[in-house]
Structure formats: structure tokens, C-alpha cells
Design brief:
The chain is α/β, with parallel strands linked by helices. The protein has helices at 14-25, 42-51, 85-107, 119-135, 139-164, 166-177, 182-188, 191-202, 208-223, 236-248, 271-282, 316-323, 343-368, and strands at residues 2-3, 32-33, 74-81, 229-232, 253-256, 288-291, 306-309, 332-339. Helix 3 runs antiparallel to helix 5 (139-164) and helix 5 packs antiparallel against helix 6 (166-177).
């Protein structure tokens, strides 16, 4: 049995059950797991190997002699974008409230006293609090859950403003206003949040990344009119904005998103529609594919010349998958857009650090091999 994109085989993903059933029932089970990005944490690599019953790991990089002839050079550039003063004013208000919520969680000894609290830490805190709530329904736990929920909401609002733009934040505030949860209603009563909502409602300035994207694409097509380009972004609202802007300057972009339909303004694509769009992109009916995470894995699109990250992503797996869309059969180019002094920069350096950790982990596997675990299931416990 072959498992492609084997990095997905964690927790209760379907791969885990399939591997288990196969291993139990096959006469001579043999599993091959393939991935370009197993992850930057030892625990994750351990889990993948455990769930797929892995006994031996082979690693290759673009520098290995048996790989080098088949890999094209991919240049990676970083484009820093200055955030407008009008955006900064809103960001200051949001961050002030966010910092207040985080400081309260620190004072409750629920999170460590770090200068920068990672989003992942706040998400893990919720899981911890929910477990404690099952044991004791105390007011202390309810208060902590409220603070955690508000902190995540504020962090998401900051991320939308700084990395995507005012249009995305307006839509988010509108959804929040219709949310019946007590924690949300309480947050919206804060005068600073009301002021932020007021400032955002008056903003008609697009995020400067849209102009930069248009310029980068124009330059690429000027130097190579036959170029095919993929632009990645986290959010469908941004996909629609990019498509609109590029249509206005006479280019041939196409929207490529998942199947789920959020509402009337954000309809998903059926599987047949997705297949047709990819065929049209390959045949050059469209020369720009504007996509969300749906385009990061599993696409067979040869000869993509240029990939643009509309924002940095904190995941080393997603960074590698995005970057891997180009440089397959000919020289590739990648540009990562980063709004200056925002979460964009934090996410970029986070993914860079995790990717370096992943390479270090794989190098240990490469040079040290695997040790057999005492349990029946063989674990990758050397690294």
C-alpha cells in the first residue's frame, strides 16, 4: 500500500485507520509512505512512522547526486510591503486589547510569560481548558475560556488587517456582530474595538499587496509572455480581490478554491469544475491560477514558472508544498510578500525555523538510521 502526502498520517486522519486495517489483514504487509515535508518536530515524525508502521526511512534533498539531475533551480525572493498609516491606526487598537487579554491569561498562570505568545499556544490552551472543564465547571475555567476565545478572535482580526486588508476585516467584523456567543458580544462592547470597527468601516484603501502583486505579475509576463503563474493566499475573499484586480489590467486569472460553500458570496467549486479549471490552466486558456490551500497539494501542473505567496504561512509543510509547485521541469521563481513589522514577518521566520529543524531531523535519520523499538510497532525514536 502506498500513501502519498504521508505527512497527513497523524491523529485521526483516514490514513491512520487504513494503514492499521491493512497491517492487521494483509498476509505480508508492505507500506511505502511518500512526502516532501514530514514536518519540523520529532514528535510528528515519530507519529507518522508509528501510524504507518515504518521501519526504515530514506531521505533525499535537491543536493543529492541521484536527485540533482532531475531538479531545477528555484530562486526565492522576499518582497517587503509597507503598511499604510490608516491600517496601523486600527492595528494599534486591536493589539492593545489583544495584549490585555494575553496578560490576564499570563497572570492566571495559564500560559508562560513570553514576549510573543504563539497562536498555537493559545489554541492548545483551549484544549487544556476544555479537559479541565469536564472535571470541574468552575468560574475560573469559564473566565479563562472567554479570555482565550477573545484573544484568538483578536489575533485573527489583526492577521486579516495586516496581511489581507480592510475588506477582509470588515467582513469579519460583520460576522462577529451576528455571533450570539457571550464572549464575542462582550468583546464588541469594548470601546477600543468599537473605535476600530468605525475606522475600518471608513477605510477604502486596498492592501498595498494588491498593487505589488499586479506589478510582479506584469513584470513576469513582460519578460516571458508564455509564463504560467500560481498565486497562493489563505482566504477566499482575497482570491476574489486578486482575480478582480488582475482582470482589470487585462490578464487571464482564474479562481481555484475548494468544494465547500460558505455563503452566497463565497461559493465552492464542484470536483468537475476544479478539473476543468486545471485543464484550462494547463492548456493556457488561463495563465494565472489564484488559489487557497486547495492548490498546495496534489496538483499536477507542469511548467509553472512563478509562484507568489500573498502572505507568509507559519507551517513549514505548507511553505514547502507551495514552493514545490514551481521548478519541476524548468527553472522556477518564488516571491513571498511580507507586510513590514506584522504577523507576516513572524510567520515567515517561524516557517523558516521549522524547515531548518525538519532538515536537521531528516539528516539524523539519514546518518544514524532507525533503532528498533521494544514494542511490536517500530518507532522512529532515534531522532
Amino acid at each position: 500500500m502506498v500513501f502519498d502526502e504521508a505527512h497527513r498520517c497523524v491523529k485521526d486522519y483516514d490514513y491512520t485507520e487504513l494503514a492499521s486495517k491493512y497491517h492487521e489483514n494483509a498476509l505480508n504487509p508492505l507500506i511505502l509512505g511518500l512526502t516532501a515535508s514530514p514536518g519540523g518536530r520529532k514528535q510528528r515524525v515519530d507519529e507518522i512512522c508509528r501510524n504507518l508502521f515504518i521501519k526504515h526511512v530514506e531521505t533525499r534533498t535537491e543536493f543529492d547526486a541521484d536527485v540533482r539531475p532531475y531538479v531545477q533551480t528555484t530562486s526565492v525572493e522576499w518582497e517587503r510591503v509597507a503598511l499604510p498609516a490608516s491600517y496601523r491606526a486600527v492595528s494599534v487598537l486591536l493589539r492593545e486589547v489583544y495584549d490585555e487579554k494575553v496578560e490576564k491569561l499570563k497572570s492566571m498562570k495559564l500560559i508562560p510569560d513570553l514576549v510573543i505568545v504563539p497562536k498555537k499556544l493559545l489554541l492548545e490552551l483551549r484544549e487544556h481548558l476544555v479537559v479541565r472543564l469536564r472535571k470541574t465547571r468552575s468560574g475560573y475555567i469559564f473566565a479563562a475560556l472567554t479570555l482565550q476565545s477573545q484573544a484568538i478572535s483578536l489575533l485573527h482580526a489583526i492577521e486579516l488587517l495586516e496581511t489581507q486588508g480592510a475588506v477582509n476585516l470588515k467582513a469579519y467584523f460583520e460576522r462577529m456582530s451576528m455571533n450570539p456567543k457571550r464572549s464575542v458580544k462582550s468583546l464588541l462592547k469594548d470601546v477600543r474595538i468599537q473605535n476600530a470597527c468605525g475606522l475600518v468601516s471608513e477605510l477604502d484603501e486596498n492592501h498595498p499587496k494588491l498593487r505589488v502583486v499586479s506589478d510582479l505579475v506584469s513584470q513576469q509576463l513582460k519578460s516571458n509572455p508564455a509564463a504560467r503563474i500560481i498565486i497562493f493566499t489563505q482566504y477566499r475573499d482575497t482570491v476574489d480581490q486578486i482575480v478582480s484586480v488582475l482582470n482589470q489590467v487585462g490578464m487571464r486569472p482564474v479562481r481555484f478554491v475548494g468544494q465547500a460553500t460558505r455563503d452566497e458570496t463565497s461559493k465552492g467549486l464542484t470536483q468537475n469544475e476544479q478539473v476543468q479549471i486545471l485543464n484550462d490552466f494547463r492548456s493556457n486558456k488561463y495563465n494565472l491560477l489564484i488559489t487557497t490551500s486547495i492548490g498546495e497539494e496534489g496538483l499536477h501542473v507542469p511548467d509553472v514558472d512563478y509562484v507568489i505567496f500573498y502572505e507568509a504561512v507559519p507551517s513549514e509543510i505548507r511553505t514547502i508544498q507551495r514552493r514545490g509547485r514551481t521548478g519541476r521541469t524548468r527553472i522556477g521563481r518564488v516571491t513571498v510578500l511580507m507586510a513590514e513589522d506584522t504577523v507576516d514577518e513572524a510567520y515567515y521566520y517561524s516557517s523558516l525555523r521549522k524547515e531548518q529543524q525538519m532538515r536537521s531531523i531528516l539528516e539524523k535519520v539519514r546518518t544514524g538510521g532507525l533503532r528498533r523499538a521494544k514494542k511490536k510497532t517500530t518507532l522512529l525514536d532515534y531522532i
